[in-house]
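Margin note from the TA: students keep mixing up input and output lines. Inputs are the sequences; the output is the structure of the whole complex. Example:
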Amino acid sequence: AQSVTQLDSHVSVSEGTPVLLRCNYSSSYSPSLFWYVQHPNKGLQLLLKYTSAATLVKGINGFEAEFKKSETSFHLTKPSAHMSDAAEYFCVVIPYSSASKIIFGSGTRLSIRP
Amino acid sequence: DVKVTQSSRYLVKRTGEKVFLECVQDMDHENMFWYRQDPGLGLRLIYFSYDVKMKEKGDIPEGYSVSREKKERFSLILESASTNQTSMYLCASRAGGGTGGYEQYFGPGTRLTVT
């Protein structure tokens, strides 16, 4: 069975310091992996996606993620946090075999301290 | 630019009312989805549609129905709204003819309150 685990429910960093949001997945087949961001009372916006091309994926707003098959991880990073990065972040797995199933992580709330 | 729009950002309805939530996408996507999002429960799939007039139940279809008469429009219907349907409702669309691997694009959400 496919699943996705976000290891931290809440991460707090100071502005200008690095961000690391952790995600582990479980999938029988080659999954497609995504990170979405949700600002308060807004919909989900796609940050980046991995679909079996390069293992290091660059997204919008300076975020990137590295697919590590040996560790079944897809952690999201950013070198320098900005106040506008404060939001909820979701790691998502879409199994290749499924037309509809999208598996969401439970979310990580990112807070930025001035 | 990809666009998914939802008819209302905020909606307040009374118990027992029939409620329509509409979603429109301009990307010619085959697949459309309705989710609800609740604190501590994450996003849960209510219904999805893979073609005009085609629909399948998601994880929590009870109390909801859907309609897809045109490719770009997917409606969620609450036949008789109840207070436990107070939630954030998110619509999404996705390209692809059958298998997965394609990202979903989300609308801004409708925050529905049933009193």
